[in-house]
Write a structure and sequence with these properties.
8 strands, eight-stranded mixed beta sheet, 5 helices, alpha+beta
């Protein structure tokens, strides 16, 4: 299996079904932090649900509709990034992320998402990459900004999370704006 270095001690790698137990252990460590803003922590609660989540992304990958990658630090799964939506026919996709608290603040999400976005534009010819996050998720919104995305909209009270309706911000970058592809 391949991995891509994000830092001297951190790698990005494909997260697959056979990682279910490791994925569950990771979710258990970061459940409250991850679950503060996204549903993933509420869906992955045992080995079967971890396997089902990973299987869903294996099916998305096979259908060219999404992809899932883990982030390891010192060999330990601490987070991930993904193409939640990947529509090659329209040239649109959406990236997303999550991390355990111990891995936050190191730039790992930004580095991993740069790799995904660059691949989407350069290798797959995508036109637009979106980022959606709760308006309350300031760290996620800061990552979108670091990636050169622009805030395009706020969908007011569009996302029910743990009994509270959240505003969702939509950020995006176009291929023509991406530094690695602009002027291609």
């Amino acid at each position: 299996m391949f991995s891509i270095d994000l830092a001297a001690d951190a790698q990005l790698f494909p997260l697959e079904i056979w990682h279910a137990e490791e994925f569950l252990a990771h979710m258990d460590r970061g459940r409250e932090f991850v679950g503060e803003h996204i549903r993933l922590a509420d869906f992955v609660t045992d080995v079967d649900s971890a396997r089902a989540f990973l299987s869903g992304y294996a099916q998305k990958t096979a259908a060219d509709g999404g992809r899932l990658y883990g982030i390891r630090v010192d060999g330990k799964l601490v987070g991930g990034v993904l193409f939640r939506i990947f529509e090659a026919d329209t040239g649109n996709c959406e990236v997303g992320c999550w991390l355990e608290p111990a891995a936050a603040g190191r730039g790992l999400v930004t580095a991993a998402c740069r790799i995904l976005i660059d691949w989407a534009f350069r290798e797959r010819g995508m036109h637009r990459v979106e980022w959606r996050a709760s308006s309350a998720n300031h760290k996620s919104l800061a990552a979108a900004e670091r990636l050169g995305m622009r805030r395009e909209a706020v969908l007011r009270e569009s996302y029910p999370h743990r009994g509270v309706r959240q505003d969702t911000e939509i950020w995006a970058v176009l291929a023509s704006e991406w530094p690695q592809t602009a002027g291609r």
